[in-house]
Amino acid sequence: xxxxxxxxxxxxxxxxxxxxxxxxxxxxxxxxxxxxxxxxxxxxxxxxxxxxxxxxxxxxxxxxxxxxxxxxxxxxxxxxxxxxxxxxxxxxxxxxxxxxxxxxxxxxxxxxxxxxxxxxxxxxxxxxxxxxxxxxxxxxxxxxxxxxxxxxxxxxxxxxxxxxxxxxxxxxxxxxxxxxxxxxxxxxxxxxxxxxxxxxxxxxxxxxxxxxxxxxxxxxxxxxxxxxxxxxxxxxxxxxxxxxxxxxxxxxxxxxxxxxxxxxxxxxxxxxxxxxxxxxxxxxxxxxxxxxxxxxxxxxxxxxxxxxxxxxxxxxxxxxxxxxxxxxxxxxxxxxxxxxxxxxxxxxxxxxxxxxxxxxxxxxxxxxxxxxxxxxxxxxxxxxxxxxxxxxxxxxxxxxxxxxxxxxxxxxxxxxxxxxxxxxxxxxxxxxxxxxxxxxxxxxxxxxxxxxxxxxxxxxxxxxxxxxxxxxxxxxxxxxxxxxxxxxxxxxxxxxxxxxxxxxxxxxxxxxxxxxxxxxxxxxxxxxxxx
Length: 531
Ligand code: HEM
Ligand SMILES: *[C@@H]1O[C@H](CO)[C@@H](O)[C@H](O)[C@H]1NC(C)=O
Ligand SMILES: *[C@@H]1O[C@H](CO)[C@@H](O)[C@H](O)[C@H]1NC(C)=O
Ligand SMILES: *[C@@H]1O[C@H](CO)[C@@H](O)[C@H](O)[C@H]1NC(C)=O
Ligand SMILES: *[C@@H]1O[C@H](CO)[C@@H](O)[C@H](O)[C@H]1NC(C)=O
Known about the structure:
Layout: H1 3-11, H2 16-33, H3 53-61, H4 64-72, E1 77-82, E2 85-90, H5 93-101, E3 105-106, H6 108-118, H7 123-130, H8 140-151, H9 154-173, E4 178-181, H10 184-201, H11 206-209, H12 212-222, H13 224-229, H14 233-236, H15 238-256, H16 267-278, H17 283-289, H18 291-299, H19 301-313, H20 318-327, E5 330-332, E6 337-341, H21 345-348, H22 350-363, E7 367-372, E8 376-380, E9 387-391, E10 396-400, H23 402-405, H24 434-445, H25 460-477, E11 478-482, H26 507-510, E12 514-518, E13 526-530
Parallel strand pairs: 2-10, 6-13
Antiparallel strand pairs: 1-2, 3-7, 4-12, 5-6, 7-10, 8-9, 11-12
The chain binds protoporphyrin IX containing FE (HEM) and 2-acetamido-2-deoxy-beta-D-glucopyranose (NAG) (4 copies).
Keywords: Heme, Iron, Membrane, Metal-binding, Monooxygenase, Oxidoreductase, Transmembrane, Transmembrane helix
GO molecular function: heme binding; iron ion binding; monooxygenase activity; oxidoreductase activity, acting on paired donors, with incorporation or reduction of molecular oxygen
């Protein structure tokens, strides 16, 4: 309503005082809600419903909202007004890579918020965890993250690979000629949750003592954001709340008994507990905190495994080629023991590795979160290509991998599964012309399923080993069909919930039953892994 319209209202004899009050309130709200935008900041992308539209969009469409916004307006980076704050959304792969590496964009505020709201770590323990660092010492979280990466270095991985895959071997070795399950996903999920937790926690793995905790992790995961909201979670999200309590109680027992000091425990588990103890965090809070470890190491890897297996099973031309590759890394002893040599995936199974990367390109829409801790110029490109945007302190940045994962750089079939997409092309590097080299570089930048910068997922090599190991036996040794014995169809993947890196199987895919039968020639073998 313009000022003159307002006046004409008044002159028509409406009660002036009421109208003046309403106008005044509207004006104040407008000023309060108006997002101040510097011309150097990323262009604003207004929601269709003023002020609250983006929040409604995110709640309604979850991760898919970023794809929708990009389809509406393909900006390299946009400012989304969110009632009183703003969110910068990065769509350009180059800007995403600069953001991951930028020291003024921090992940720490989110880690701290998760620790307190999602894991309910006590206020006393939050004090050392919040330690921001000083001239002599790095911050607690800087030290913690550095330790994580050291703990997942090559020399520590062998033990984890071997432990996780031992559980896979034990499970498949129990299969007689045929095995049927009502849900292939839940069968895999159960096996791999145990496999991963064995690898992390060793022989006192709390999930082995109480198998109900396997489902508890996934109950916790299914209402993670509700728990994070932290508004009377016991009432608002009772199932996830109870699951959290049950797992934390078991982990508290584990750390109180100092089981993490035992030799068959992963370096990852040991190092994290050691640094928390060094800062005088009691075992009870270590137990609460380490629900995070159990959760990050299962939540994304296991759905990835499911989609990878399904993509292969539904590719009749690719499957025999993958089996041929696998036959070169499997040795069969006279006593009918089949050994998969997992250190040979990279060199001997290029199509399998390519199909894994292709699966995560399609299934992974992780949206990295960072907070701008000081006014920052984020730039990308050189010369005429150079772009620079001002990011204001206090705002949040979201970096949805889903957008570059499906961008036109992948070609017209970007939305389709192509097992060969990541094969090193025949031509060697010297023969490629400038354009091809530039395209390769662009694809590399546009693929970041594991995030980047110093928070790049430390579990990615372990995930590679456990997923490919499990897929390898199931594909090489077994025929996996649906419950009626038919070939499994090609999945169409949507997007996951906010906070999920990988879309989880729902509906028909979650309910997909399977008949798993030993392949001809492999009926009598016992499987094992060489790591
Ligand atoms: C396919 C499976 C996996 C995917 C897609 C995945 C993805 C990610 C992503 C996107 C991040 C955040 C990176 C960022 O914000 O820049 C992350 C962090 C992390 N991941 Fe993974 N991850 C997977 C498997 C694992 C496994 C198996 C483990 C442990 C054994 C693990 C441990 C972690 C940890 C500890 C962090 C936190 C790192 C930090 O705060 O600096 N992840 N992961
Ligand atoms: C931490 O302290 C706040 C008040 O300062 C309180 O509301 C909250 O319940 C405490 N959290 C825990 C986990 O003790
Ligand atoms: C564990 O598996 C990863 C992925 O295959 C591999 O890079 C690493 O070499 C393995 N480590 C050992 C010691 O087996
Ligand atoms: C597995 O492959 C590695 C690397 O080539 C090799 O050193 C090792 O002997 C192989 N193990 C088996 C059992 O073949
Ligand atoms: C990062 O923040 C500091 C202030 O803490 C500021 O001086 C610096 O210019 C910022 N860096 C960039 C590249 O904007």
